[in-house]
From TrEMBL, chains A, B:
Cleaved signal peptide residues: none
Protein name, entry field: MerR family transcriptional regulator
One Pfam family hit: MerR_1
Gene3D superfamilies: 1.10.1660.10
CDD domains: HTH_MerR-like_sg5
Domain HTH merR-type: 1-70
Amino acid sequence: MRMSELSSTTGVAVPTLKFYLREQLLHAGERTSPNQAQYDDSHVARVRLVRALLEVGGLSVARAREVVGAVDAGSLPLSSVFGVAQRAVTVPAPLADDAPAPTEGDRLVAELCAARGWTVYPNNPGLALAARVLDTYAALGQQRLHAVLEPYAEAADLVAGADLAAVAAAPDETEMTNVVVVGTVLGDALLAGLRRIAQEAESFRRFPLPEGVPAPGSATTTDEDC
Amino acid sequence: MRMSELSSTTGVAVPTLKFYLREQLLHAGERTSPNQAQYDDSHVARVRLVRALLEVGGLSVARAREVVGAVDAGSLPLSSVFGVAQRAVTVPAPLADDAPAPTEGDRLVAELCAARGWTVYPNNPGLALAARVLDTYAALGQQRLHAVLEPYAEAADLVAGADLAAVAAAPDETEMTNVVVVGTVLGDALLAGLRRIAQEAESFRRFPLPEGVPAPGSATTTDEDC
């Protein structure tokens, strides 16, 4: 197909497709004349993936390029693909004072790993990210938020179990790699979305609404309710 | 204290403090001369919060300003503060084709809410976010990832229960508001970090490492292990 058809099939505008090509997010088509190239199903699939990474996953172009590179590398062991996908979606979390010494947060995370039997390489980006958040809670005088660590870890185990079951259900290694990338990048957004819903539902249970404010699901809002 | 002391107390450079002031992320100090102002503990606390929102939470300046505004508004009901904090950290998730009609993702999310007894207002940003991710899985040919919805929802309930317990443990309404903001914005990052760790641990359980690759926790890596 020509670029115009790639555009209509994927719903992505031609200038955006040219941007993807220029940024090496999309592999070149087969050139049929100096001004024309042919694209195939592999381009359709790639455009959809790139769009999902950028628009739904909220990745930068540079990080999306890394993820796409991991998919293309193919021969990487599965755990390396996880690593690349994980790093691509992990907000860089600078140390509070650029201190290389382990902090209270690092200690709490190490304890948690030991308690849960989580054995991982020390460069797992989640270790530093979780530790920095715990240190930040403390720096903001919100040590009480350290109490969420246990239930959050329980939740993370549930999620990771589901993630890996989805990977294992894929028919071959190429598909497994795709599940890892898509599920890691977009899974954070899915989980965040569900957390927002559950938070609001739970807040109505715990804290009554001010008088006169209609509750969700009441007569005035029923039509559009969740 | 003067700005130089605010800088040394918080570890944030003076030009950055001036940027916070200019961007209305930090309230002005009390002017003592045309070129000088005095800052107090409220400024220290605010600088720490803003830094956490921007650097650990990964928020944009505009979104951080909204969050700070919600904290300052004070009299908002708690569920509104939740709303602002939630919207500030929710990646905008455009509809696949700007279609206003409910999609398969919307339907799945509505079913899930009904099954779990999640009653929320229709403008909860998590509804659209979760639905868009499910639609994107389908568009990428990864419907098998819809299987994660149940365990993710279970995890979201655990997390939300812990979130609201932390809010309820705060001594007064100002503190509750702070817990909501800090816990919502940074809690996503904490959860993402723990998910990365649990994913890697689970992947070692399910998929053996290629031969010759030292496992985490083996003699060569013990020193720095999780």
